[in-house]
Amino acid sequence: MEKESWLRTAWAIIVKIAEFIARISQAGLDKLGAEQVEFNPVAGAVLLLVFTLMLGSGCWAASIALSRRHAGWLHFLLGFFLPVLYPVVILFAMDLQGGSQRRKQLEAERRQKEQQEIERQKMLELQGVKPSEPEQSGVAEQVWNQRYFERLAITDSGVPAGPWNVVVSGNAFVVLQILDAQESVVLVETGGREGGTQKLRIPYSKIESWQE
Fold it and tell me: 0.85 cut: is pTM over it?
């Protein structure tokens, strides 16, 4: 809001300056016409272009200063009288007001924490206490995947392994043999009706238990 208010004020001042220049120019043209003095339009256009450049440079410098929490009027004047050069310089050189102090404060806090940690480690060493290490759980969660069932399908002697008591989606049954382990499912052989067997594809995500 402060930036928008300042820009509106600056624009109103620019409009007033332009009106003043227009009145002076008109008066000058009338006087020159009365004295029959020829007006050079090229020189007039150059002067107008230079003045526009100076105004734009001042507004640019003020905008940069305001965005970095600095006063706008001073940098507007400097940008006006040092067109283009001054805005380009502060664009890369001007720091956010209060930013350097904040960085110094953060750096000091970081160094203080590091020093406190060093002192704490020294105290622990003097007391003969080793730094605590995060506890690791001794129980690893079982992962059902293709690699697991490829290893499970064959015993160390090279013969097909089995059988297993399996629970899939709440249904318990016996798997007699693992036929093929694929990317997302395992193909198994289970007991069928009347003493026969049947093949079944079991998605890994549906397996709840697999025990011998």
Answer: no
CA pair distance 44, 28, nearest whole angstrom: 12
Q: What is the strand order of the sheet 197-203 is part of?
A: 197-203, 185-191, 171-181, 164-168, 207-211
The count of other CB atoms within 10 Å of the CB of residue 210 is 18
Chain segment 102-113, per-residue pLDDT in tens: 667 777 788 888
d(CA 184, CA 206): 11
Q: Which pLDDT tens digit goes with each residue over 133-150?
A: 544 444 455 778 888 888
DSSP string covering the chain, please? -HHHHHHHHHHHHHHHHHHHHHHHHHHHHHHHHHTTPPP-HHHHHHHHHHHHHHHHHHHHHHHHHHHTT--HHHHHHHHHHSTTHHHHHHHHHPPPTTHHHHHHHHHHHHHHHHHHHHHHHHHHHHHT-PPP-----S-PPP---HHHHHHHHB-TTSSBP--EEEEETTEEEEEEEEEEE-SSEEEEEEE-GGG-EEEEEEEGGGEEEEE-
Give the C-alpha separation, 51 to 80, whole Å. Answer: 9
> Burial level of 146, CB count in 10 A (0-12/13-18/19+)?
middle
